[in-house]
Design a protein that fits this description.
The protein has 226 residues and is α+β, with helices and mostly antiparallel strands. It contains 7 helices and 8 strands, in the order H-H-H-H-E-E-E-E-E-E-H-E-H-E-H. The protein is globular. It comes from Larkinella rosea.
């Protein structure tokens, strides 16, 4: 009996060592979601599609600040002029660029470039920051998508201002050929009617929308980018 006990206790360190090795191996294999998603930028060659790496990184940083219901990330890059396709819809889980298309900014934000931004009523300006997509409805522009602004002082009045995603006739290549730029909205991220339904169906119901511009006030004060 004593001999059996001695053998048992002699084997215990090897048992714990084996268990410890297994746990250590698992921890090394664990990668946080942000690290997994960061490789998507290179995988999808988003740089060749006009989206800068710092803008994508900002979007990922903010995405991880709030629990979104879906892994669809939409980026409106207002550092680009409106005659470029500056709306990117990315499926992070499937590693796919679902859409890249035109999107308008507010009429009082600028003409070709959006330079001024506001969270106030009747400003007719775009609002920067992170949004959560909500429900769809049929409005004067047809199928539209409600948006909830998540950043106090920057876009938290969006729902009350009726800032929604909708289709518009002034968001198309024909309009660009005539004027050199897109038409402008009353602050909404208006998109091409030809893809409106598909995009809204893809991003509705709790996904993340990030409206970006290199605005110093926003970049310094946004709690989502800290």
């Amino acid at each position: 009996m004593k001999k059996a006990l001695l053998i048992f206790f002699a084997l215990l360190p090897f048992s714990f060592a084996s268990t410890g090795t297994t746990v250590k191996h698992i921890s090394h294999e664990t990668v946080d979601q942000g690290s997994l998603w960061s490789g998507i930028y290179d995988e999808l060659q988003l740089d060749s599609n006009g989206l800068r790496k710092d803008v994508f990184d900002y979007a990922l940083r903010g995405l991880q600040k709030t629990a979104f219901a879906r892994s669809i990330l939409s980026i409106v890059d207002l550092s680009q002029p409106s005659n470029r396709k500056r709306l990117y819809v990315i499926d992070l889980d499937q590693h796919k660029l679902l859409f890249q298309t035109y999107v308008a900014h507010g009429r009082n934000s600028g003409e070709l470039m959006a330079a001024a931004f506001s969270n106030t009523f009747s400003s007719f300006q775009s609002s920067l920051g992170f949004y959560q997509t909500l429900n769809t409805y049929q409005g004067k522009h047809g199928l539209s998508l409600q948006l909830k602004g998540l950043e106090q002082g920057f876009n938290d009045n969006a729902f009350s201002r009726a800032i929604v995603m909708h289709g518009a006739d002034y968001v198309c290549e024909d309009f660009i050929r005539k004027t050199g730029r897109l038409g402008r909205s009353q602050g909404c991220p208006a998109i091409d009617n030809a893809v409106c339904k598909d995009i809204i169906q893809a991003i509705k119901g709790g996904s993340c929308l990030f409206v970006y511009s290199p605005n110093p006030d926003y970049l310094q004060k946004s709690t989502f980018l800290l």
